[in-house]
Amino acid sequence: MKIVPDQPKIAIIGTGALASLFGARLNQAADVTLIGSWKAQIKALQQDGLSIHELTGKQHHYPLLARHYPHELYDFTPADFAIVLVKSYQTGLAAQRIKSCLKPGGVVLSLQNGLGNLETLEAALPEFKVSCGITMQGANITRPGTVVHAGNGPSIIDVQPFLTPLFTLFKTVDFPMVTYEQYGATSISEVIWRKLIVNAAINPLTALLGKPNGFLATDPIGRQLCIVTAIEAGRVAMLEGGWPAEKNGMIETLGIEVATATAPNRSSMLQDVSRGGRTEIDSICGEVVARAAKLGSAAPINATWLKLIKQVEKVDGGTQGKPQFTAQELRQLIS
């Protein structure tokens, strides 16, 4: 049952695990619709709603509206807010969906992985108020219509007056959200770069090694690979001005800390290559490499992971989670 009388209207762009989780939570206090193109998920939500296996071990069911873009938007009442929760390579397509479902002057908040999403959305959507942040929520889809909630970390956003209603809404439904100031960062750029550094140091390595995150914290060579990747990405972040120089000393531990805390997890990139899907490597290591080049520098370690993941993406039928390299082989490639 909804808990506020005058409900804002929210379009969540995406129908995957995080989009579904956010939709179910926010639907308690807002008029929420998921907009995407995954037919099986949309059909399941339309027919039966969403089942969530909660962190408590219990399973709850939530009614949740979903519509297919563009076929089911002909009578859609424009939303006040759009929350973008799609893979980074879908950001351009997400912008087209937003144009079809958001009222003039509406608010767009990206909580995607990687760098470059904000620039893409701002260029495509000049008529809207656009911002970005990150989320530390974790979720997986076991089958269409069913989500496993895997982690209840905060979503971190910029300090912008137009984001205040969303901030309040998240608090209303007890879904953790903080500003970058409350998180102890100097800017939202620092927050985004922090997650990018962690993703660069963990995701491609676990995908190439076929190992859960914890391997990078316990295997001596895996640990070394994680650290040197983080240091290189962090150096680019500092060159760009997205990471404060006074926090330079903490960069090398970022990936290891997260790998330790999420030891059993199989990274999203490992899951992607396992099933033969496209990864977000371009917006992670690819952005590190591209931004280094613009600054007259280089990021050869990230460039190596970018090249290798591109190759692994082409494995017929996916890797099925099998290792494509050993840690020793990867170390030799960057020596």
Account of the 3D structure:
The protein is α/β, with parallel strands linked by helices. The protein has two domains: 175 residues, 3-Layer(aba) Sandwich (Rossmann fold); 147 residues, N-(1-d-carboxylethyl)-l-norvaline Dehydrogenase, domain 2 (Orthogonal Bundle), CATH 1.10.1040.10. 44% of the residues lie in helices and 20% in strands. It is globular. The N and C termini lie far apart (58 Å).
Strand content: 15-25%
How many β strands by DSSP?
Answer: 11
User: Number of helical runs?
Assistant: 14
Q: Which stretches are poorly predicted, pLDDT < 50 over at least 5 residues? A: none
Label the CATH architecture of the largest domain. Answer: 3-Layer(aba) Sandwich
| Principal-axes shape call | globular
CATH topology assignment of the largest domain: Rossmann fold
- Can you tell me the CATH class of the largest domain? Alpha Beta
The major β-sheet equals: 6 strands, parallel
Strand arrangement, largest sheet? 5-2-1-6-7-8
